[in-house]
Amino acid sequence: MILDSYEAYRATGFRPKVCILGSGPAGTTIARKLGAAGIPVVVLEAGSREFSDESQDFYRGTTVGDFYFDLDITRLRYMGGSSNHWAGWCRVLDKQDFEPKSWAPDTGWPIRRADIEPYLPEVHDILELPDFRPDMPISDDIRWVQLIKSPAVRFGEKYADELDRSKNIAVVLNTYATELAGDGKRVTSARLWSNGQDAGTFSADYFIVCTGGLENSRLLLWSNQRSNGGVVPNAAALGRYWMEHPTFEGGNAILANYSEFEVDAVNEAFFSPTMAAMERLQIMNFGIRLIETPYAGVKRLIADLACTAPDAAEWAAYQLSQNLRCAAQLYVAWEQAPLASNQIELSKTDVDHAGVPRIELHWKKSELERRTLVEGLKLFGTTLIERDLGRVRLMDWIANGEAYPTNEETAGHHHMGGTRMGTDVTRSVVDANCKVHGMDNLYVGGSSVFCTSGQANPTTTITALACRLGDHLSKVVAV
Amino acid sequence: MSFFHRMSRRTLVRAMIALPALSLARKLPDANATDTGLPQADPNEIVEVNGWILKRSDLA
Predict the structure, then answer these.
(1) Are A393 and B52 an interchain contact pair (Cβ–Cβ within 8 Å)?
(2) Which of A52, A147, A156, A190 is 20 to 30 A off residue A375, Cα-Cα?
(3) What is this structure's pTM?
(4) Which domain holds residue B3?
(5) Which residue among A304, A382, A395 places its CB closest to the CB of B53?
(6) Average pLDDT for chain A
């Protein structure tokens, strides 16, 4: 059932065992898994079925460090969460993304990719994906990888009818927890806010926090502060190791055979480094996306090449005469090194309408990431030469070592880390089963548990982890 | 009588005009030679010029 207020929910007499906070991809997926296992679950969704300025205002915050999007623009607060503005790009993190890297501290997950692979058929159903083809190496250094554009599933729309019909799931709109209370072992209650006012306290056997890659940290930081450490007893890493996918136009390429890489339905090609290349160059993962350059841009590019390498320009002009589509813009998105200093803090001066401190996000790209961008593009350019596939030109700001531009894409709106998974309680918040260290009944779902970001958009991995957590909880809660 | 006094003025002028062209007759190093003692540029070497990632032979 779906209800519009906590008051309406209370009138039903529904008695859940599990309370899920948030109805985005993670929250909805976990709820469906638990519901299918016959476990009664309530999903508290802060927003309503549609976008509203009033709801969105709760997401305002500030950023310190590098330029970043306004925090009330980069996510959505209504049923289905940020899937409502998701572009639909899908790919699970690479196997190598789960492995520790000696040149990048605090990398490595307590699980491996094989631990989530059994859930991929389910993920394909949820996100409506065809099968992925295997990565194809085009050299020892570069892999041609596949990202599939799903129909951009809006979880709130796709599953509204199913959730409404479910006897085991109650979705309560316009209602959320402003804080959890805990005694250092268990969450004992949640203070609720519904339709613009305090709605009292609420209890359940288990709480699953799925409010998003920024909000999960905010809720737990505030709850922990209010409970004197009773919600996240080991809080050294809480809010820390936050990551994004920095994204910029990195250059252009002239290609001998553009159509060679246009086999996917989206007609866009992606390239990533091999683990051996990452290790040799001591860089992070990255994805170079080819987007076709318009004809006028190709001519300008060839004219530019003629000033430097006339023979090569003659070759390029020949390619243009054979095929008008012979050049691409290179968009680069890369993996951020997990740094404790990139963190979510609670504002000391600004609170929302419910009195909860807003987010102060500290975010800065590192030297390692700059090297990843530069060396990654050079590696791609070298590979094109060695395979006789084309030539690459770097953007001036990259070739000249200038600052990042502020008028470009900047990042992927991918919010990862803050409640990362791990075994060391000083460097992580949840264990391999997404349970908060030291707590018996508190779990976290979503990309905030990511230890590393890889280069792939996070929704596919979020959904796979949610399927895994749903299965795990089904067994734990049923006991 | 010196050597120059035995040459006519006309012969001397012709010789001076022809002098710069004599360098053409010098033996120049063979572009393909490998025993010159100087390091040879690898035409497949990857170079970065004006932001372009190229191989050296592209610059010809």
Answers:
(1) yes
(2) A147
(3) 0.90
(4) 1-26
(5) A382
(6) 94
